[in-house]
């Protein structure tokens, strides 16, 4: 039988907690509608309210020289969680410049994020994923 000291148990417990909490953001789903970008988690097992029944959505241009600066943010309180597309967070399309990469972050109990560009192809708007490290879509 192995005996662990209180200090060893504390170190193991702290390590396990830090490892479990250090997961990166989860993927955020987005779809394009006529007047808005629709953001939702599509992950019922990982989508839960925080203690205050609020969540935040942030949009920022992907900018590696000037750092993260939100161009749009909104707090939601006591509304259905954006798990399915029907309950998505609606971000006005006017918040996006064409061909510019944006980070969209949904902060609930966990963090969900994605990087997108809104592009025009044959007079029709669509969402694309920019290449890693790129700040625009071509």
UniProtKB/TrEMBL annotation:
This is Uncharacterized protein. InterPro entries: Extrcyto_LP. It comes from the Bacteria.
């Amino acid at each position: 039988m192995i005996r662990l000291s209180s200090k060893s148990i504390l170190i193991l417990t702290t390590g396990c907690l830090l490892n479990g909490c250090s997961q990166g953001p989860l993927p955020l789903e987005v779809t394009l509608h006529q007047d808005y970008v629709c953001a939702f988690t599509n992950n019922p097992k990982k989508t839960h309210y925080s203690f205050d029944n609020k969540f935040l959505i942030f949009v920022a241009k992907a900018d590696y020289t000037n750092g993260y600066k939100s161009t749009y943010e909104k707090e939601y309180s006591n509304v259905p969680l954006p798990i399915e597309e029907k309950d998505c967070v609606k971000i006005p399309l006017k918040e996006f410049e064409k061909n510019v990469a944006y980070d969209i972050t949904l902060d609930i109990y966990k963090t969900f994020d994605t990087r997108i560009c809104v592009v025009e192809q044959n007079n029709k708007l669509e969402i694309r994923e920019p290449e890693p490290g790129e700040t625009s879509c071509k």
